[in-house]
Every structure is written in structure tokens, then in C-alpha cells.
């Protein structure tokens, strides 16, 4: 990432997406302290990702050069920094720029300086460490892809290591040396073409393709079939935060797919319900699919007189 600054021009770089992070940096010159370059590096998660806690360790290299002749390098410094959900900015102050310019017989007030910033990501936590891109674009050749999947007659250009991080079924599919195992896995894919293709669309982040109340159970089913903890976690976080799914539907999915965080969230909510709130749950379609233990807990919270009126014992 580069930008041009001088004594009167400040610069924001464009957004750069790398390792599923959105990077941006700001730079300006100041006269104080013998002249200094201020640089602020920002690292943020794209808004359509559901993980709230993340961190990223990176090596940052800043270089200041003459804008017309970039062989004239005024400074070149390297920093190690940890970006996180609680601290996403790094402020760097490089002082003494006037002296460095004077060594090249150049004026601080008149010089245009090219500030170049390089980022090397060392490791990440709370994300999948790969660039997320549109699967529709990847089919025309992304440069990183190394195999194809054919689903319903459509070829998907994919990267084996990337998909392998999304579940054991992909790991076995791409790494198994046993024909019987491979045939069994392909049978599962062929029998679930719609389910599998929908999962590929989500995994490859076709940008407008997000989890919603109509597809969340299908994606949970795919996550369970593929052994994909990432996909299941995305769905669980969606269900915890959305207001567009009824309580009984959330509890039903929590029990069916063993979503512990969602289950505890529902139990906590249910403990705050009054008798009328619990009575409304009896009218939800998904109430009938709940386990007997949860049904008993709901009925125990409703006043006996109300249950008698409804002839429920």
C-alpha cells in the first residue's frame, strides 16, 4: 500500500482485503520535532463476518521515499504488532524527517514523499486464515485454486487446503488414498447436491449470500455432515443474535444439532419469561418438536389455572 504526502497533503489509502481483514492506513507530515511522519494502520474484520473476538499478529514495514525517484529512501523501519477486536489501530511516529531530507539536499516544505507500507501476517485467531472470495469469480481462474468440484453440472474452482479447513469431509475427499472411502464421500455429495452447493456458496462468500432464517437449518445440516465446526459456529452465532427466528425454533435447532451456546442462551431467556410469555410458546409450530424435558419446563412455568382452562395437564 502506498500514498503520496507532503507538508500540506494528508492521505488515506484504499481498503485492502487480506486474510479476511480490511486493512487501511493514514499518513501525514508534521513540522514539530524536526519533522515527523504520522502513520496510523487500521486492521478490521469485514462487517459480514460473525466472529466478535479476533486477533492478528503482523510485521509492519514502513518506507519513506522520494515520490519522483523511489531509489532515494529516507527511512525504512519494521515493527511487530498485534491487532485485535479491542485494539485495531497502530500509531507510528517517525521523527527527524527534516534531517533525513537535508542529507539528500531536499526541502521538507517542498518535497513530495511516497510512504509505502508492507504487511506480513504471521498468524490469526478467531478467523479462517484465507482470503475469502466470490466462488463465481473463482471459476474463471483465481490463481490460488488447485481443483474442481462438479455439482449439478456446474464446475466450482476451489482450493483444496481452504475447503479442508471447513470440515473433515473435505479433508478426506481431497486426501484419501482409498477408493472405497472416496466413493462413499462422493455418494454423500451426489445425494445432497442442493445442500452441498448452498454450502459452497456460503463458504466462498458470494458477498450477498449470508445466513438467514430460511437457510440456517440447511447450513447446519451441511456443517454436521461435513464435520465443519466453522460453519456450525457461524450458524449458531446467527441464531443467538437474530430476532427473526422464534424461540421454539431456536431451542429445537439447539437440541437437534447440539449447539451448547445457543441452548444456554435459550435457557437463560426462558428463565426470564413470565407465565404469559411461556403460554405464547405453546402456539409456535416448533414447540411440538421440542424434547419432553423442555416442554415440561415450559409447562411448569405456566400458572395451573391457565393450564386447566386450556385442558393441559
UniProtKB/TrEMBL annotation:
InterPro entries (alphabetical): BTB/POZ_dom (IPR000210), SKP1/BTB/POZ_sf (IPR011333)
Domain BTB, first and last residues per copy: 145-212
UniProt-listed Pfam families: BTB
Gene3D superfamilies given in the database record: Potassium Channel Kv1.1, Chain A
Lineage top rank: taxon: Eukaryota
PANTHER family attached to this UniProt entry: BTB AND MATH DOMAIN-CONTAINING PROTEIN 36-RELATED
Protein name, entry field: BTB domain-containing protein
